[in-house]
Write a structure and sequence with these properties.
Helix content is 51%, strand content 0%. The chain is an all-alpha fold and 180 residues long. It has two domains: 3-81, no CATH class; 110-174, no CATH class. Helix 8 packs across helix 10 (161-174) and helix 9 packs across helix 10 (161-174). It starts with a helix and ends in a 6-residue tail after the last helix.
């Protein structure tokens, strides 16, 4: 995760989960949340670093707590930051994600067998993969994102999944666009 762009958003998202789940009405009401310690409601345990979080909102503790509280409350209707997760692995700017994925062996970038199907995320709408790309490259990217099966991609194009399988195989062998 690119801490500069996503860490605070992820912290806010986690703090607001009990509200979204309708377990509580206000963040301060959830006893197992870091929110209570961050806003000074009770002492932070030795294991919990609230100073870094508050330092992102100001130098004076009282003012930082006010700003942090506002930040949390303003995020209640935001989309989850995990919607931006790319390749089931990286959360951050395009530059950050490219850097992370480049460190992985090519084989591991494609192998999704270790990720349970229920945990695979549809990172982008399927139509997004087909903007400004040739069909073969788009099919390859959509399938190896982990979010779409060959059947789903075939249904999108009006073809049987076995056709998508052949497109993928030919594209991988030649890594050139196919005429279909």
């Amino acid at each position: 995760m690119d801490k500069d762009g996503y860490l605070l958003e992820l912290c806010r998202y986690v703090v607001l989960n009990p509200i979204r789940a309708e377990m509580i009405k206000q963040s301060i009401d959830y006893p197992w949340s870091r929110y209570r310690a961050t806003v000074g409601y009770h002492e932070a345990g030795e294991w919990l670093d609230v100073d870094w979080t508050l330092s992102q909102f100001g130098r004076q503790k009282k003012r930082a707590i006010e700003k942090y509280s506002e930040f949390v409350e303003e995020g209640i209707y935001n989309d989850p930051p995990l919607n931006d997760l790319q390749g089931q692995l990286a959360l951050g700017s395009d530059k950050f994600v490219t850097k992370v994925l480049a460190k992985l062996p090519k084989e591991s970038q494609k192998d999704l067998s270790e990720i349970p199907k229920k945990q695979r995320r549809k990172i982008y709408a399927l139509s997004t993969y087909f903007r400004n790309k040739d069909r073969s490259a788009a099919i390859y990217d959509a399938y190896y994102s982990g979010g779409y099966s060959q059947r789903e991609i075939g249904d999108y194009w009006g073809h049987h999944y076995s056709t998508v399988s052949r497109w993928l195989k030919r594209y991988e062998e030649h890594m050139t666009p196919l005429m279909v």
